[in-house]
Amino acid sequence: MVTEFNDKTPIYLQIMDIIKMNIVTGKLKANDKLPSVREMATNLNVNPNTLQRSYQELERLKIVYTQRGTGTFVGEEKDMVDDLKREMAKEVIDSFILRMKNLGFNDNEIIKSVSKETMEVKSNG
Amino acid sequence: MDNILEAKEIRKSYLNKKALRGINLNIPLGKIVGLLGPNGSGKTTFLKIAAGILHQSKGEILIDGNIPGVHSKSIVSYLPDNEYLLKWMKVKDAVMYFKDFYSDFDEIKAKELLVFMNLDENDVVKSLSKGMKEKLKLTLVLSRKAKLYILDEPLGGVDPTAREKILNAIVSNFSKDSSMIITTHLVNDIERIFDDVAFISEGEIVLEGNAEELRTSRKKSIDELYREVFQ
C-alpha cells in the first residue's frame, strides 16, 4: 500500500480516514478482517503504537470490532456505512463551502455555481 | 508506566566546552523516542553516556533502574554513528563476531534480516557501499533481543530506497517490551515512527512531547517544527 501522509495532521487520524474510505467505497465489507497492527505498521512504515491507536478509535466509534485472538473486523451494523458516508460527505462540503466563502461567494452564488457544474457534468458524462 | 531510561540533569563538559547542559529525559517501555537536533547539539554525547561509553560530569542516568555498567550493556543494543566493523571481515564473520559478544544475539533473525536487506553473507565488509554498511550495522544491532535500542543516525548517508528498507526493518522488528531512542537530522523521512520527540540544541532540550499531540497543537509536521526550532 503506497500512501502519502500529510504529516501536519495526526497520523492516526489519517490512517482512520484511509480505512473509513475503504469501507465507504466497498473495498472493505462487513466482517472483513483488517490487516494486523504489525502488518499494517510495516506496510505504511508507521509506529505500531500509532496503528494501535487508530484501531482503538475505530473500535470506540463502532466502525470495527475486535475478536480476541483472531483480529479486527469491519463492523456489521446496518447503518454504519451510510452514517460514515454522510459524515465524510459533510466534511467535503464544509471545506468546500468555506473555501468558496473565502473566494467571496455568498450562499446563493455557491448553490448556483454547484448546480451549474453538476448540470455540465451530467451533459458531458 | 515503567521507564527504561531516566536521565536527570545530565551535564558533560570537555575541558571548557559544555556539551550537555542539564538533560532531563525519560524513555518509557514500548516507545520509540526521537532525539532531534543539528550536528554538534549533543545528541551523540548523550547517547554515548546512555550506552555506558562516556561518563557524565554531573547528573544521574538510570538504565532499567541501574547506572550504566555490565548490566546495562547486556540489555542495551547500540548503533554508533562511526565505523566499527573490521574491514577484512566477511558479512558472516561480522555476524559470528556479534554472536560471540552478546548472549541475546539471535542468529536466525540476523540471517533473515540479511536476506531482507539484500546483503550477501560472503561479501567482504571493505567492499560494501556506505548504504550497505549501514544496513549491515543495523542488522547486527536489531538482531539482539535487547530492552533498549540506541540508534545514532541510522539513516546517515543512505539513499532514499535504502532508507525505506532501514525504516521498514526498524518498524517490523520493534516490540512492545523494548524501547528505542533514535537520533537524526533527517526528520522528514522518519517522523512517522516516533511516539515522542525531544529537540536538543546546544546541549539542552528545548522542546519535547508526544509527536501526535505536537502535530495537533502546532498544526505542523515534526519536520516543520524542527525547521522552526533550528532556523
How is this structure best described in words?
The complex is a heterodimer of chains A (125) and B (231). Chain A has 125 residues and is mainly alpha-helical. Chain A has two domains: 11-74, Arc Repressor Mutant, subunit A; 80-124. Chain A has helices at residues 11-24, 37-44, 48-60, 80-102, 107-124, and strands spanning 64-67, 71-74. In chain A, strands 1-2 form a two-stranded antiparallel ribbon. The radius of gyration of chain A is 18 Å and the shape is elongated. In chain A, 20% of the residues are buried. The mean pLDDT of chain A is 90. Chain B has 231 residues and is α/β, with parallel strands linked by helices. Chain B has helices at 43-51, 70-75, 91-101, 107-116, 130-142, 160-173, 187-190, 211-218, 222-229; strands at 3-14, 17-28, 32-36, 58-63, 76-79, 148-152, 179-184, 196-201, 204-210. In chain B, the strands form two sheets. A six-stranded mixed beta sheet of chain B has the order 5-6-7-3-8-9, with helices on both faces. In chain B, helix 6 links the parallel strand 6 (148-152) and strand 7. In chain B, helix 5 (130-142) runs parallel beside helix 6.
Q: Identify the strand order in the major beta sheet of chain A.
A: 1-2
In quaternary terms, these chains amount to heterodimer
The average pLDDT value of chain A, as a whole number, equals 90
What topology, given as strand order, has the largest sheet of chain B?
A: 5-6-7-3-8-9
Stretches of chain B where pLDDT is under 50 for at least 5 consecutive residues are none
Radius of gyration of chain B: 17 Å
Share of residues in strands of chain B? 25-35%
The biggest sheet of chain B, with number of strands, parallel, antiparallel or mixed sense and barrel status, is: 6 strands, mixed
Biggest sheet character of chain A: 2 strands, antiparallel
User: What separation lies between the terminal Cα atoms of chain A?
Assistant: 31 Å
User: Which parts of chain A are unreliable, with pLDDT below 50 for 5 consecutive residues or more?
Assistant: none
CATH architecture of the largest domain in chain A: Orthogonal Bundle
What's the gyration radius of chain A in Å?
Answer: 18 Å
